[in-house]
């Protein structure tokens, strides 16, 4: 039994002064078979603690449907960390940000227009209480006061960046205590007046988050908490990527220099991230500063460990700094995980989306447009269809408040794309006999940070031609989960000419399936050269989104998702296949920084 306490301006553990040197690893971004590998690499670098968020939407994806197994088995992850000799910091939501879909909040909260997020709203608090009643009892046996590895637990997350309802923060604090959390509680916020005023609670330990300007940030913190130990709960040592932007890289020497300055100041630190992992499935979030910016599938973060778990130059530089301050490797470094190039895979089976609708969904008749949450849908796609009377000549089709990207079809032929970040109208001409209008909308991730957090998906206001709103719609929800994907009836085609399949499917959305054989199992990377935009599954596991807009050019496929023998790949491609529907499984990643990979990825053993 241990307890982390604060005494005379420093942390004390078991009666002795203690410094936390932590790295962030999110269990929900790593396949469970690799949890041990990532944790051991953290320990081998010199860290004594691992920090993880807990994502509410992972554990209650549907209302009152609680999940705590597989990648959602947070208790198993914490237990494993303890068995490996690591302490644990837990940040249990309800909101986490983390560039994670909706900041970790479950999408079904948006079904109720009256519910207010992250404040003393009874409707919201009732949902939090129900969730905590399931989550917190799983954490209590793992507290250090009960012999487990959890030293500290966070209250909410960066609340000062959102609001000033400190009564809400106190409610969360009291809820944790009432359910048995008796370890050190803390808040974390940016080092500004606004954030420290809004996000801290009197009598609760406060920590700060930043990536540079150490002296300035600590000076601002000291204005509010002069007698508390310094703790950087998020030292941003890299950054995340949005689609249509360059890949972010931060120099290893700069990261090491700032870390050294933090430790010289006597601070404890949590490195965000030590290992970023992957936004599998639909879980990548989005930001909205000046415009909507969706996050890529990779959460590599330019962290000390790559998305696929390899040690980098940055990791070595961090280890040197930790060693300088007395934090030596706690174990040998695990061997790198093997990677294999399984070669090209022909996706010779296909079927158009519009030919598969009856297998994937039931039609819903509605007078007016509504977003997907109103139909109990959280993720994926939603299809709005109606009959437009003619004749109409060169009018303007407006989709009001599309969330986030709409493909428009008239009588089955592509009319154009309307994007949230570029919501221009499309020209439409309708013959005298009329025409069928289909609008397929993709949810590209809910906003995870800031004042625009409430982010329903689909079409949220309406569709009009010039100033005339269109009514009477047939709506189909298309979450495209593994259970529905397995019902699709494909047609296998003998591809005799390079353009044969391309001409059959054209540029409309379609599913493509193929198989490859693996004689040995290791990590691999799925490349999409010639493909445009869509999502991918391997053996029924949803890898995430791909898009030729970059910077990400390949999806990481962890070896535990594969099996010796036959393996299945399914793509849902939104704009039609290349002339030859082939993908490649390669042994090298591509994050848009190929020229820097050799410098970035180093193996400790080889280098030493």
TrEMBL record:
Q: Which organism is it from?
A: Paenibacillus selenitireducens
Question: Which Pfam families does the annotation name?
Answer: BetaGal_ABD_1, BetaGal_gal-bd, Glyco_hydro_35
Regarding protein family, the annotation reads:
Belongs to the glycosyl hydrolase 35 family.
Q: Name one GO molecular function term.
A: beta-galactosidase activity
Enumerate the spans annotated as Beta-galactosidase galactose-binding domain: 509-567
Q: Which reaction does it catalyse?
A: Hydrolysis of terminal non-reducing beta-D-galactose residues in beta-D-galactosides
Q: What is this protein called?
A: Beta-galactosidase
Q: Gene3D superfamilies under this entry?
A: Galactose-binding domain-like (2.60.120.260), Glycosidases (3.20.20.80)
Q: Which UniProt keywords apply?
A: Glycoprotein, Glycosidase, Hydrolase, Signal
Superkingdom to which the source organism belongs: Bacteria
């Amino acid at each position: 039994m241990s307890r982390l306490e604060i005494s005379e301006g420093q942390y004390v553990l078991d009666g002795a002064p203690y410094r936390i040197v932590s790295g962030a690893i999110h269990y929900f971004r790593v396949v469970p078979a690799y949890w041990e590998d990532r944790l051991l690499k953290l320990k081998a670098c010199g860290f004594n603690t691992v920090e993880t968020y807990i994502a509410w939407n992972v554990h209650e994806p549907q209302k009152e449907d609680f999940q705590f197994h597989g990648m959602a088995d947070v208790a198993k992850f914490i237990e494993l960390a303890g068995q490996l000799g690591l302490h644990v910091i837990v940040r249990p939501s309800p909101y986490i940000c983390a560039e994670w879909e909706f900041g970790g909040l479950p999408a079904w909260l948006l079904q109720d227009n009256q519910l207010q997020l992250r404040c003393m709203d009874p409707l919201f608090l009732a949902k939090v209480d129900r969730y905590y009643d399931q989550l917190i009892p799983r954490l209590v046996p793992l507290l250090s006061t009960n012999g487990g590895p959890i030293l500290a637990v966070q209250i909410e997350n960066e609340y000062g960046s959102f609001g000033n309802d400190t009564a809400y923060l106190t409610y969360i604090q009291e809820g944790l205590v009432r359910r048995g959390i008796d370890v050190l509680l803390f808040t974390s916020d940016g080092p500004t007046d606004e954030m420290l005023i809004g996000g801290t609670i009197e009598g609760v330990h406060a920590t700060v988050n930043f990536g540079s300007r150490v002296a300035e940030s600590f000076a601002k913190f000291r204005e509010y908490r002069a007698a508390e130990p310094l703790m950087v709960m998020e030292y941003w040592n890299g950054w995340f990527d949005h689609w249509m932007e360059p890949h972010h890289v931060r120099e290893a020497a700069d990261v090491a220099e700032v870390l050294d300055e933090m430790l010289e100041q006597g601070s404890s630190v949590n490195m965000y991230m030590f290992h970023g992992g992957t936004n599998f499935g639909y879980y990548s979030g989005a930001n909205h500063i000046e415009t909507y910016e969706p996050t890529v599938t990779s959460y590599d973060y330019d962290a000390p460990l790559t998305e696929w778990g390899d040690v980098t130059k940055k990791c070595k530089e961090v280890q040197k700094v930790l060693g300088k301050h007395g934090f030596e490797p706690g174990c040998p470094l695990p061997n790198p995980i093997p990677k294999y190039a399984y070669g090209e895979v022909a996706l010779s089976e296909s079927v158009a989306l519009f030919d598969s609708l009856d297998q994937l969904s039931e039609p819903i008749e509605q007078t007016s447009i509504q977003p997907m949450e109103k139909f109990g849908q959280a993720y994926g796609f939603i299809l709005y269809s109606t009959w437009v009377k003619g004749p109409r000549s060169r009018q303007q089709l407006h989709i009001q408040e599309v969330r986030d990207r709409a493909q428009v079809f008239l009588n089955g032929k592509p009319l154009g794309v309307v994007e949230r970040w570029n919501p221009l109208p499309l020209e439409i001409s309708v013959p005298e006999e009329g025409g069928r209008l289909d609008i397929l909308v993709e949810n590209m991730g809910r906003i995870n940070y800031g004042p625009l957090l409430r982010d329903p998906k689909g079409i949220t206001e309406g569709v009009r031609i010039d100033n005339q709103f269109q009514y009477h719609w047939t709506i189909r929800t298309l979450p495209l989960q593994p259970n529905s994907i397995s019902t699709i009836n494909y047609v296998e085609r003998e591809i005799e000419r390079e353009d044969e399949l391309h001409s059959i499917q054209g540029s409309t959305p379609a599913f493509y399936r193929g198989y490859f054989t693996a004689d040995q199992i290791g990590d691999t990377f799925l490349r999409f050269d010639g493909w445009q935009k869509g999502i991918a599954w391997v053996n029924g596991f949803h890898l995430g989104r791909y898009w030729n807009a970059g910077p990400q050019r390949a999806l990481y496929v962890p070896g535990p998702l594969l099996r010796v023998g036959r393996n299945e790949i399914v793509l849902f491609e939104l704009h039609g296949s290349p002339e030859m529907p082939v993908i490649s499984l390669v042994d090298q990643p591509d994050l848009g920084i190929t020229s820097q990979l050799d410098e970035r990825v180093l193996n400790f053993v080889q280098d030493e």
